Amino acid sequence: MSVLAVNNLTKRFGKFTALDGVNIEVNEGEIYGFIGPNGAGKSTTIRVLLGILKATQGNAKIFGQDAWSDAVEIHKHIAYVPGDVNLWPNLTGGEVIDLFVKLRGNNNKSRREELIQKYNLDPTKKCRTYSKGNRQKVALVAAFASDADLYILDEPTSGLDPLMEQIFQECVLDVKSKGKSVLLSSHVLSEVEKLCDRVGIIRQGKMIESGTLSELRHLTRVHMLVETKQTLTGLYELEGVHAIEEKDQAVSFQVDAEELDNVIKHVSAFGILKLESTPPTLEDLFMRHYEQKDESEVGGAS
Amino acid sequence: MAQSLFKKTGSLFRFMLRRDRLRIPLWLIGITFFTLIVPIAFVDLYASQHERDGLAETMANPAVTAMVGPGDLENYTIGAMTSHQMLLFTAVVVGLMSIWLVARHTRADEEDGRIEMIRSLPIGRVSNLNATLLVLCVTHVILALITGFGLYALGIESMGLEGSLLYGASLGGIGIFFAGVTVVFAQLSESSRGTIGFSIAVLLIAYLVRAVGDVGNETLSWISPFGWVTQTEVYANNHWEPLALMVGVAIVLGVLANYLNAIRDLEAGFFPARPGRKKASAFLQSPIGLAVKLQCTGMIAWAIGMLVMGVAYGSVLGDLEAFFEGNEMMEQMLVAEEGYTLTEQFIPSLMVVMALLATVPPVMAMLKLYGEEKKNRIDHLLGRAVSRTRLMGSYLIISVVNGFVMLSLTAIGLWSAGATVMEEGLDFGTIYGAALVYYPAMLVMIGLAVLFIGVLPKLGSVIWLYVFYTFIVLYLGGLLDFPDWVGHLSPYGYIPELPVDEMEWVPISILVIIAVILMIAGFIGYHKRDIEG
């Protein structure tokens, strides 16, 4: 069952098109990774989902209700953490957490204390004295202290140290184990890789890729490192082989997934001594989309 | 060692001047303009000694003395009037300017981490502090000279060179004094807010101590730096000694601040940082509670200000009749009506001004909603189970109640002071009614603020132009003979002038209806638009 469904969402600010036909679907109990460069439209999409911005075209539904007109009803069951947490300088962290939890409706006192401990936050300090990371902790504690069905997290770890990132990941997996859903927008690709069931990549307001990680990996290249008895030749003539580098005895290169079979056949003829292959990381995937785009843009311009 | 503490003070000094190349000149221009325009206006308003003596009579009461200090009422020349009515107020403004400028260059920069960058360079530990003091000293010396020579250049008979220079020097002296106070608090407090708060507290206490002293006990006045300002007796006896006192104490404070700065850690203070509440009170946990908490300090300050303003106007009512006799300009403003005393006729003119000032805090309270939006904090609320109607409604309720309270306080202040100084007393109902009749006009202004926030939030500050327009048109309208329609462009122009006019319910009701329509339109707009951020 889909908890969140974005259908052909378009958002224009004047003449500027921030979102251009975005589609997202998050299912129950799923962690959805939402990645893209700065200014691609991640936060705009999330603000439409929160009913703070109104969609120009298309629609966004959460729990089957409209994100704009049923905002208040929806918000009773979601928790949101913004990437840039601005708080009131003269309130303490503890006060802000209580306010946020209360404004959603339900309250889970024991969880609040536990989370404050876990994130090592001093709730008696005024927000003006908090660093970016500490302000983010306030928002994270408020979000995870409430029993929500959907967590919308917009780059929630950009100011956290690695230790706190670890705790954050535990929190996310914990809510997942309870069957809740998460929309996680992030720049930390290793985090997305670790946590997310499915991933969507947005660029310049358009979704350019989405699916499970293994699905996406099919679209990209495998890293290989081979050492052969005889000197390996003829690699340059093969289709789908990239970034060839000679390293001492060995050769490293990348292979397009669909050409893998041919390449292995070719290489095995030279007598394999050693063969290492690593699956593409999300980063490769991400970078590849840029390279492609840049190339096509250059092509389009000429 | 000693030298390395002060290293590069000169460079920082120039850097601060560069940062303040607009701010300081604007302050100086503002204060000088204000200082010079008043004696010019006095020459027009009180052309003859007879008129000035009339004014002196109204000034000879404890309430006025508490507000502006003692003056040379026996020999009330233009010069004596200027120093009596203006010097102390201007000194307060100069003190505030010092506090803001010093806090900006010391604790505020430190709190935001900019001093850390500066200190990582080969720059002395107390260089920033002394560069700040240097900037302030230079600023105040310039202020002293331009106001001093400026006043003399007006060529008014009773304003001689020595008195004029002393007038300027008193302003500069009090400015340097409060620079000294603020640099000390910038070391003691950990935040710029605290620095400004403590310094303004000292300023207010100094003002109050002087007020009590001037009315009752002159020795007490000598404790207060504002007492020293009035003790200079500018344009009368021209005492220069208090000036030495101001500068002397400022130097002691400056040295103390240097010592404190040299022994403390960066970004640390001496006042212990109190831990705040660990949990939110039940009151805070709603949009309206949050909004009240955020605006609380400001609202209390405004409330006190409104009450004091009411008292200030009320305290002059007692001698009003004597004052109006023989003042042509005032008589022109108040066309004689049969059956009313001059005082009663004067009340509507007072009420317009007070109602307009009382409109400022509620409109600010409403516009705060957009201020929060610009600071990206509205997302926290709308991203939770808070509807836009509830959010805007919370701010509207605060604004509407705020306006009612502010208007009431001015009326209560005016009545209580007026009733004390007038022989036959004042009817509370009359005064309260004359004030509250402006409430519908205020509601229209609030409604306009709601409409702007809902539809054109970026243009919200246009309201202030409208308030200012109303002020000019209605306050000076009688004097400048504007046609009626000019006044009718403002809701305040439709309000019956109680108690002189009859009460008229039609325009009042129409204004209320307009206010409600504006508010509804604003709510609809707010529901439809994107939240910025």
From TrEMBL, chain A:
<keyword id="KW-0813">Transport</keyword>
<dbReference type="InterPro" id="IPR003593">
    <property type="entry name" value="AAA+_ATPase"/>
</dbReference>
<dbReference type="InterPro" id="IPR025302">
    <property type="entry name" value="DrrA1/2-like_C"/>
</dbReference>
<keyword id="KW-0067">ATP-binding</keyword>
<dbReference type="InterPro" id="IPR027417">
    <property type="entry name" value="P-loop_NTPase"/>
</dbReference>
<keyword id="KW-0547">Nucleotide-binding</keyword>
<dbReference type="InterPro" id="IPR003439">
    <property type="entry name" value="ABC_transporter-like_ATP-bd"/>
</dbReference>
<protein>
    <submittedName>
        <fullName>ABC-2 type transport system ATP-binding protein</fullName>
    </submittedName>
</protein>
<dbReference type="InterPro" id="IPR017871">
    <property type="entry name" value="ABC_transporter-like_CS"/>
</dbReference>
<dbReference type="GO" id="GO:0016887">
    <property type="term" value="F:ATP hydrolysis activity"/>
</dbReference>
<comment type="similarity">
    <text>Belongs to the ABC transporter superfamily.</text>
</comment>
<dbReference type="InterPro" id="IPR050763">
    <property type="entry name" value="ABC_transporter_ATP-binding"/>
</dbReference>
<dbReference type="GO" id="GO:0005524">
    <property type="term" value="F:ATP binding"/>
</dbReference>
<feature type="domain" description="ABC transporter">
    <location>
        <begin position="4"/>
        <end position="229"/>
    </location>
</feature>
<dbReference type="Pfam" id="PF00005">
    <property type="entry name" value="ABC_tran"/>
</dbReference>
<dbReference type="Pfam" id="PF13732">
    <property type="entry name" value="DrrA1-3_C"/>
</dbReference>
From TrEMBL, chain B:
<feature type="transmembrane region" description="Helical">
    <location>
        <begin position="86"/>
        <end position="103"/>
    </location>
</feature>
<feature type="transmembrane region" description="Helical">
    <location>
        <begin position="165"/>
        <end position="188"/>
    </location>
</feature>
<protein>
    <submittedName>
        <fullName>ABC-2 type transport system permease protein</fullName>
    </submittedName>
</protein>
<feature type="transmembrane region" description="Helical">
    <location>
        <begin position="346"/>
        <end position="370"/>
    </location>
</feature>
<keyword id="KW-0812">Transmembrane</keyword>
<feature type="transmembrane region" description="Helical">
    <location>
        <begin position="505"/>
        <end position="526"/>
    </location>
</feature>
<feature type="transmembrane region" description="Helical">
    <location>
        <begin position="437"/>
        <end position="456"/>
    </location>
</feature>
<feature type="transmembrane region" description="Helical">
    <location>
        <begin position="243"/>
        <end position="261"/>
    </location>
</feature>
<feature type="transmembrane region" description="Helical">
    <location>
        <begin position="195"/>
        <end position="213"/>
    </location>
</feature>
<feature type="transmembrane region" description="Helical">
    <location>
        <begin position="282"/>
        <end position="313"/>
    </location>
</feature>
<feature type="transmembrane region" description="Helical">
    <location>
        <begin position="24"/>
        <end position="43"/>
    </location>
</feature>
<feature type="transmembrane region" description="Helical">
    <location>
        <begin position="463"/>
        <end position="485"/>
    </location>
</feature>
<feature type="transmembrane region" description="Helical">
    <location>
        <begin position="129"/>
        <end position="153"/>
    </location>
</feature>
<keyword id="KW-1133">Transmembrane helix</keyword>
<keyword id="KW-0472">Membrane</keyword>
<feature type="transmembrane region" description="Helical">
    <location>
        <begin position="391"/>
        <end position="417"/>
    </location>
</feature>
